[in-house]
Amino acid sequence: MALISADRERFPNNPWQLVETRHEQGNEGTLETLFALGNGHLGIRGAHWAAADSDLPGSFINGLHEIWDIKHAENAFGFARTGQRILYIPDANNFSVVLDGESLSLAESEVLDYRRSVDFSTGVYECRVTWQCRSGAVVTTTERRAVGFASRGSLGISLEVSTDREVSVDVTSSLVNRQDQPVEDHSVHDPRRAGRHAGRVLLPLRLDGGDGSLRLAWEAAESKQRVGVAVDHWTSAGHQPFETLVDQDYSSVRYVLAVSPGEPFRLEKSVSYAAGRAIQEPSVDPAAVAEEGLRPVGDIFAESKAHYRDYWAASDIVVTSQSVLQQAIRWNLFQLAQATARADVAGIPAKGVTGSGYEGHYFWDQEVYLLPYLTYTNPDGARKVLEFRHGMLPEAQVRAKELSVDGALFPWRTINGLEASAYYAAGTAQFHIAAAIAFATNRYVWATKDAGFRDGMGAELLIETARMWISLGFFGKDGLFHIHGVTGPDEYTAVVNDNLYTNVMARFNLRAAAALEHAGISDEERQLWEAAANRMQLPFDERMQVHSQDNDFMHLEPWDWNTPRSKYPLLLHFHPLVIYRHQVLKQADTVLAMFLQWQDFTAEEKHRAFDFYDPLTTGDSTLSACVQGIMAAEVGYSREALEHFTNAVFIDLDDTHGNTIDGVHIASTGGVWSSLVCGFAGLRDQGPVPYFDPRLPAEWDGLAFHLKIQGRLLLVELETGSITLTVPEGEPLAVDVRGQQLTVGAEPVKVALEPVPQPEPTVFPSGHPTASIPVVRANS
């Protein structure tokens, strides 16, 4: 069911804001995600300030988590042993406002006017409500929020109360430990959602407060990670607090006063969090460290505005003549900034810092779907994510020994470097995460020419993952190199032999490692890697004349496509074994391999693979639509490319997968970036030079964006029939446009483009379905 695009009166189209003009009950949790703020380190959900008006409020710090022992019903050697879950940090976004004895809430009070927004250009959240109070007064409350960037642990909140007559105002500002409140364990019904801890998690270390200030600190019971928070309040006209209460679960500062017309009451709440390695020593007071980070609320708002001014100057993507898509595109780009900007040396959770979905874990998503965006818009940020992966190398080497392979085996899902996936068939068996890390490493080095990283951490990542592949696979009697017992990106086929995606990416990994000039690689090892890569088994079905997803995929029973739409996603309605024995995909798998390793397949192979697999793909994964759209564009299916892209760009805005309540699908937002840059602009990398083969939709008048490549800022401008490239400053850049070699400098280089013919759809010699299941979404 569509949300944003279904009601443009309630959610008007604005190219630089997400706006809600009317409050309705029923989607509070989803909208808390859509209106969330974050900087990659600290995140705050977009909940209303009144408890009665929120559904799943909370705040998070990237990487701050609790652990527990995983209890397997039937244990076995090498199963994941340590569960990890992101914590709800004590949440500062809480107020109660009582006017003349009436407690204001959207659920109970009369609302005359309502408007809330999040401004992509400034990073500021604002909610203004005009209330008709039972006392007769007309009162307007305005709340504004922003997170810091130079001070990444900072949060600024202001609340203003204005009135048309003198009223009695009772305002309480509170800090709530939501982590230890009793809440339903949603993961019982949906494995994509976050679970809850049975016992108390946050144990108080310090509880101090007075005169409107709070200094508090906690320690997680098992992980022993600490978090400190400092809160200061400021009011207009210097109002003193009526009382300040301090408790481990609920601390508050209360103001009681009279407010007159023309003299609004303004309350500013400056919040600073401290977490991470710097406060783990017992002698360090986390609350004192947090106090050092306190900033005036006005400074925090200024930091946010300055950050986004610079961000959009280099990272905006402009689509001409498509205003509805432009708003959705900018919302997705805004989410990418919020998930990554100040993560520093840390991973990127699957939900960023907008919710607790997927337990706050890091997956392969960050390397395949997010690091392309980071590499070409914020290369320093990309390096820090790779440094974070490199920091997990010791644990990955231990894990490799547990699974009887050499080198390093990185966890499928994790926060602290240990495997946290309790279902190995769709977790640990996804060895392809190793190649994802190698691929992201190689892309970063290619795009930045960062020799220091290449020769140090980068080389170690490539070498240790290559050693894992060569020991995992084997040379068969046919003389080919096989990799058995793995799961590819498509989790609807698990523990298979010679998954094409895995083998193709492992081949890349082995070749990239073999190409290194590194003292740690012997001649024998290099020759072995090259032989395995050159003899890699790539399943191909002679009858269909198409690459098979794995050795057995073509022999599976076809899925019954008359299955009611209500039974999707399949993982919530069918036992895994039912799904595994059918020819049905959760997400693009072979098609993804052909996108990432674009030089290894012919145009005909890509065309036939897309025609065969697109109809079999349910799209139950949010990672699917973007990849299918990219390859549809390359093949020449303009209409299908635009349809897949539109589905991708509205995945969260329209909650098409029904779980946006748990946070933004950050990997999908990265896929939206790739859809524009790699799909419609046709960028392919890691070749001799950057390569463009544009596929601008006929409905679009233009597409423009910047890429940071090898120390230059490349401006790319597409319009019907041409592409224009410019490097405004620095040395010229060599670029290839459809086989034409160019040198691009300060003077724009314009290249004419012939239309891309649409191919005839492939007719396969069997009765496979011929159309994908469309995502149901109302017209905008």
Automatic annotation (TrEMBL):
Pfam families: Glyco_hydro_65C, Glyco_hydro_65m, Glyco_hydro_65N. Residues 683-744 form the Glycoside hydrolase family 65 C-terminal domain. SUPFAM superfamilies: Galactose mutarotase-like (SSF74650), Six-hairpin glycosidases (SSF48208). Keywords: Glycosidase, Hydrolase. The keyword Amino-acid biosynthesis does not apply. Residues 330-673 form the Glycoside hydrolase family 65 central catalytic domain. Residues 20-275 form the Glycoside hydrolase family 65 N-terminal domain. InterPro entries: 6-hairpin_glycosidase_sf, 6hp_glycosidase-like_sf, Gal_mutarotase_sf_dom, GH65_N, Glyco_hydro_65_C, Glyco_hydro_65_M, Glyco_hydro_65_N, Malt_Pase/Glycosyl_Hdrlase. Belongs to the glycosyl hydrolase 65 family. PANTHER family: GLYCOSYL HYDROLASE-RELATED, GLYCOSYL TRANSFERASE. This is Kojibiose phosphorylase. It comes from Pseudarthrobacter polychromogenes.
